[in-house]
């Protein structure tokens, strides 16, 4: 099997000007270290001023060094401070949150930021590559555990409406058994927030050893699973790093899975879906 087709360096710094740079910074800042996070917080607090600042001025305002400013900008996905300044100047920022806003409103804001981060981070070419692999697969085994499990179960049901043979074992041991019966022409699709889940990594390695193609959906481009996979779709590290439940990141993962399904539905045609609608209709009560 050929090596992974993903290239994290090619994606670094790619932005879409119509999306808010502040949304991107806000969503990604949680994964930064303390010093770099100070830089991100200053960007969020004083964006209009920063477009006129130098690297040294931002470093002084954030109480850190110029080198830290540059590292922070690169960690946020920019080539450097000048790239950040340019995108800030071109991008219309999100309206600032009102002080004392309700927790519910803040949660919605965070969710919007997470979805925008995913939209900026995902490479459409990799979506297309994953779809082509899934379309031609003889068998598809879905691998993921913990909080990655529910999105995969949902995706398995959606794939079945397209007539695909798909397996989504819930138990981690059952996943290990399933991938060891894969071969060339089959696909192991793995979902992992960190890209470092030990059980998922073992399953992906086993699938790859059997000759199957490994597709990974994750938040982090550089990860142990990323080194194993043939196609990697990354959504960005939304939410608090190492949180117990990376719910905000899973919003992006779920949208990516939905994008897979939508593209496959268009390629396959509507006959299968129309037939499945009768199943749904029969399941509805007439009372």
Unreliable residue runs? 1-19
**N/C terminus separation:** 55 Å
Kindly state the percentage of residues in helix: 55-70%
The biggest sheet amounts to: 5 strands, parallel
Features:
15 helices, 287 residues, five-stranded parallel β-sheet, disordered N terminus
Task: Explain how this protein is built.
- Helix 10 (149-160) links the parallel strand 1 and strand 2 (166-167).
- The protein is α/β, with parallel strands linked by helices and 287 residues long.
- The radius of gyration is 21 Å and the shape is elongated.
- It has helices spanning 8-11, 21-28, 34-45, 47-50, 55-62, 66-75, 81-90, 103-121, 124-135, 149-160, 172-179, 198-209, 224-228, 247-268, 271-283; strands spanning 140-143, 166-167, 187-192, 213-218, 231-234.
- The protein has a 5-stranded parallel sheet, sandwiched between helices.
- Helix 2 (21-28) packs across helix 8, helix 10 (149-160) packs parallel to helix 14 and helix 11 runs parallel beside helix 12 (198-209).
Topology at a glance:
Layout: H1 8-11, H2 21-28, H3 34-45, H4 47-50, H5 55-62, H6 66-75, H7 81-90, H8 103-121, H9 124-135, E1 140-143, H10 149-160, E2 166-167, H11 172-179, E3 187-192, H12 198-209, E4 213-218, H13 224-228, E5 231-234, H14 247-268, H15 271-283
Parallel strand pairs: 1-2, 1-3, 3-4, 4-5
Helix pairs in contact: 2-8, 3-5, 3-6, 5-6, 8-14, 9-14, 10-14, 11-12
State the gist of this model.
With 287 residues, this protein is of the alpha/beta class. It contains 15 helices and 5 strands.
